[in-house]
Design a protein that fits this description.
The protein has about 850 residues and is of the alpha+beta class. The protein folds into four domains: about 1-380 and about 390-395, Glycosidases (TIM Barrel, Alpha-Beta Barrel), CATH 3.20.20.80; about 405-550; about 565-670, Sandwich (Immunoglobulin-like); about 680-865, Sandwich (Jelly Rolls). Helices cover about 20% and strands about 30% of the residues. The protein is built from 14 helices and 49 strands. A ten-stranded mixed beta sheet has the order 11-12-13-14-15-17-18-25-22-23, covered by helices on one side. Strand 22 and strand 23 form a beta hairpin. Helix 10 (about 315-325) packs parallel to helix 11 (about 360-375). The longest helix has 19 residues, at about 1-20. The radius of gyration is 29 Å and the shape is globular.
Length: about 850
């Protein structure tokens, strides 16, 4: 009997293993046609897939969630559900080969591999298509130090993976076993999995100089993969450290597709980037004209992100530029695992999650919709005209992405826009208030038509960013916190009319409330909105699973202070306009009152004013009675809850009204008189916001801060060294929009820009000052600096239309380094109220005959606007 059972088990194992080797279902197969278009084999339709990278099975994400004692499979369930909710149909990951292989390239059957199997299975259950990159090479530490891992790539540099014969042997062994690995959840091996539509051999390779070595390596790895029986397209990275020779070598190889990445604002600034970066994503320009065979390859974007940007206007513009460049698959890097998203520790330069970055998540959803609808290779012109494209638009000033089509109305932030066709709508989603939904929460919401007169409503928790999420992070600190507050919502859908029912499932019981008018109160959860009463059986069908909404979600405990206050007041304001104070105040308890206490710097007592509750967590005070004149003021906020009162900053228990109140930690604001000089560039207060370029072998620079002019403050000194081969000059950038917005009215009498500056070299240096406006116009003036420190007055009339550097410098490095002004009228005048950013460009005086090294530099103490002529 024992033998018989063993024989049966062996037979079943062989049957399962054999079935795993069968060819994938043809309806999922893709092919690349002669023009380099990726098509579904069965329908011959163009492939269009958009989604994310996601890394819970590996590296830091794995370790962090383990440290918290969480179930990683439950974490995957939670995150995949959000990817589905956002409409993604693509997934890509570079597999941490170091964690699932040994030194010889043998595949290790460990928890990392099991979790990858489980993740792929969950994705496939939701019809999400997959591209796998088997070799990442990377260590598994970031942002922590790397651990010692067992895998073969631990022993080699990235270059050696291409050039070292022993490393290549291990790679061959690993690729063979990886492609042939049978996923116990799907019963398919990776090579024949119907949902794995393609593979990319290695992530971001580093190549030797010789192109034939590159082609030889690629073909060697392709041969190994093909020998497993794999028949689908293979991709290879062409954008990493691009040059024509390497790109040609990739296109000469036996791959069917080439892969790209895009980081238009570079990476790891350790701070949030402020300002308008839509010019950085004007086009995704690939210099492929000289690359034979390029046009026969399919194109995919394996990673992209507008790094360190917390706003919600960038993603659809990137999707537009991708489609213009011929991309058919794009995966954002990377979706932040929900269970650790409150800390943003996985990749602090990225921050994208439906719960913790709802506006950005809706923006990415809109980008995915645009990616599917925009015709391949279609151009929408130049910035800013291309901010509107078909049913989509982006707007920096409104921090907004929108899709407004006949059936869909998606808004990433509050807007006055109304749907094109209310009566035809089937899907509504957004954050804040729009022409169809009024909502004072800060989380996302979704409305989907179930049938005529019945809509399913999903409401996600409120979120507050407690601090800049792009600063250095830690699991010891929260950057964002969720709140399950009751909020007001109003929905104006023709399909529901002016009165409807709100239906929810409370455990096993259906609860129905009749809504008079269109306004109601709501907490996070899943509901039905119905124009007529729905019987319990039908309601349960529509609300199936709603009682476990966000089941298993981990949130860190709130420490001793249940109230959070974030100050969003401009640090400099002008008396001619009302001085305004703005805060985000959040708590799960009822706020009894919130007040601001203001005093002139040096006073003992405070003036006290009530704060006004606005949308979301916003509270404000506007000095309409002009109580504040010019000067520096200090202020704090007292918040009373049901049983305590707290004063911020510092979360002190008590109030400034208390006789023994004392705090050395107060916020401050400087109130100026109309016409006073406006400091645009202050090395002491602005240095954390400066944006510097990449270092390169052809352009090196040194930055130092020294004593300022006449011993006051500090000066910024930059010394630059160019080689004869340098093509792009040094430039640095500072966003000044907040200063301009609060201090420079549209009608103003500012006439000049004044620099206190000098050359940082023994001889004369020349810099170019670029002033970039909110509308994309660029005004430029060339300035000669001498060794002696001096004040230089440049009338605004001397600034002429020009171009500017793209800063931060985009990656890949083949992308354009400069951006042309949107204005071409040489006689147009610069209105200083429109200035958004300034650039200081260190112009190069190259010796054209000798191409010798050239050194230059500048020292700047201040740059300010003045009404002096």
């Amino acid at each position: 009997m024992k033998f018989f059972k063993s024989a049966i088990l062996l037979f079943l194992f062989i049957s399962v293993a054999g079935s795993a080797q069968q060819p994938a279902a043809s309806q999922h197969d893709v092919v690349v046609d002669a023009k380099g278009i990726l098509r579904w084999r069965q329908s011959n339709q163009e492939v269009k897939l958009f989604g994310v990278n996601y890394t819970t099975p590996f590296a830091y994400s794995y370790r962090a969630q383990k440290k918290l004692g969480l179930s990683l499979k439950q974490a995957i369930d939670l995150d995949v559900a959000q990817m589905v909710r956002l409409g993604f149909d693509a997934f890509r990951v570079h597999v941490w080969d170091r964690e699932i292989s040994d030194s010889s390239g043998n595949l290790l059957a460990n928890e990392h591999l099991e979790l990858l199997d489980y993740l792929l299975w969950k994705l496939e259950q939701n019809n999400i298509k997959i591209i796998l990159t088997p070799i990442a090479w990377w260590g598994n530490g970031w942002p922590e130090p790397d651990e010692t891992a067992p895998g073969f790539s631990q022993s080699y540099s990235k270059l050696q993976l291409i050039t070292d014969s022993t490393a290549r042997a291990a790679e061959r062994n690993y690729l063979k076993q990886f492609v042939g690995h049978v996923n116990p959840f799907t019963k398919f091996n990776y090579g024949n999995d119907p949902f794995v539509i393609a593979m990319e051999i290695i992530n971001e390779p580093h190549h030797p100089e010789k192109g034939d070595e590159v082609t030889g390596y690629i073909n060697e790895m392709v041969k190994v993969v093909r020998e497993t029986g794999y028949t689908k397209p293979l991709f290879y990275n062409i954008s990493q450290n691009w040059n024509d020779a390497q790109a040609g070598a990739v296109c000469d190889a036996d791959v069917q597709g080439v892969s790209f990445q895009w980081y238009p604002t570079d990476l790891v600034h350790n701070k949030m980037l402020k300002g308008n970066y839509l010019p950085n994503v004007n086009h995704y320009a690939i210099p492929s004209e000289k690359i034979a065979g390029y046009n026969t390859k399919a194109k995919m974007v394996y990673e992209f992100e507008a790094a360190d940007i917390g706003a919600s206007y960038m993603y659809p513009a990137m999707a537009r530029s991708f489609r213009e460049a011929g991309m058919q698959f794009a995966a954002m890097f990377s979706y932040e695992p929900t269970q650790i998203a409150w800390s943003n520790t996985e990749y602090p330069t990225h921050f994208l999650n439906l719960l913790y970055t709802p506006s950005k998540a809706i923006s990415l959803m809109i980008a995915g919709r645009a990616f599917h609808e925009i015709p391949l290779m279609k151009s929408y012109g130049e910035y800013p005209a291309n901010n509107t494209f078909d049913n989509f638009r982006v707007n920096y000033d409104e921090d907004l992405s929108v899709e407004n089509s006949d059936t869909c109305f998606f808004t990433a932030n509050s807007t006055d826009e109304i749907p094109k066709n209310n009566s035809a709508l089937k899907h509504v989603a957004g954050c804040g208030t729009s022409g169809i939904v009024t909502y004072d929460g800060t989380g996302a919401y979704f409305l989907d038509k179930a049938q005529n007169g019945i809509w399913k409503l999903e409401v996600y928790p409120d979120v507050l960013w407690l601090r800049d999420p792009f600063e250095p992070t830690s699991l010891k600190r929260q950057v964002a916190r969720l709140y399950w507050n009751e909020r007001k919502m109003a929905v104006s859908l023709h399909d529901l009319g002016g009165k409807f029912f709100l239906i929810k499932k409370n455990e096993k019981k259906i609860v129905t409330d009749k809504i008079s008018g269109t306004s109601f109160k709501i907490k996070p959860g899943i509901y039905l909105l119905s124009s007529k009463n729905v019987d319990d059986k039908s309601a349960k069908k529509f609300l199936e699973g709603s009682e476990v909404f966000l089941a298993g979600l981990y949130t860190p405990k709130v420490e001793n202070v249940p109230v959070a206050v974030v100050n969003q007041t401009n640090k400099k304001q002008m008396t001619s306009a009302q001085v305004s104070f703005k805060f985000q105040i959040a708590t799960e308890k009822e706020i009894v009152s919130a007040e601001i206490f203001i005093k002139r710097f040096g006073w003992r007592g405070f003036m006290k004013f009530p704060l006004t509750k606005k949308e979301g967590f916003t509270f404000s005070f506007d000095d309409v009675e002009k109580k504040l004149s010019g000067g520096e003021y200090q202020f704090c906020v007292r918040v009373k809850t049901e049983n305590k009162e707290f004063t911020f900053p510092g979360a002190l228990i008590g109030s400034p009204d208390d006789w023994d109140y004392k705090s050395d930690d107060l916020w401050s604001v400087v109130v100026t008189q109309p016409g006073e000089n406006i400091a645009l560039f202050d090395p002491q207060s602005d240095r954390s916001d400066f944006i510097f370029p990449h270092f390169s072998r052809n352009m090196k620079y040194d930055v130092a801060y020294k004593n300022g002019f006449n011993g006051e403050g500090i000066s910024l000194t930059v010394k630059v060294s160019y080689s004869g081969e340098n093509e792009t000059p040094f430039g640095m950038q500072l966003n000044v929009e907040e200063k301009i917005k609060s201090l420079c009215p549209e009608e103003n009498e500012y006439h000049s820009i004044v620099l206190n500056a000098a050359s940082a070299h023994d001889s004369v240096s020349v810099i170019r000052l670029n002033l970039i406006t909110k509308t994309g116009e660029i005004f430029s003036a060339s300035i000669e600096l001498k060794k002696e420190r001096r004040e230089i007055n440049i009338p605004l009339s001397q600034f002429i239309i020009s171009d500017a550097l793209v800063l931060p410098a985009a990656y890949p490095l083949f992308l354009p380094k400069t951006f042309a002004s949107t204005g071409n009228n040489k006689n147009v005048k610069l209105n200083p109220s429109l200035i958004s950013a300034l650039q200081i460009v260190c112009e190069e005086k190259r010796n054209a005959q000798t191409q010798t090294k050239y050194e230059t530099g500048f020292e700047i103490h201040s740059i300010y606007l003045t009404n002096r002529k």
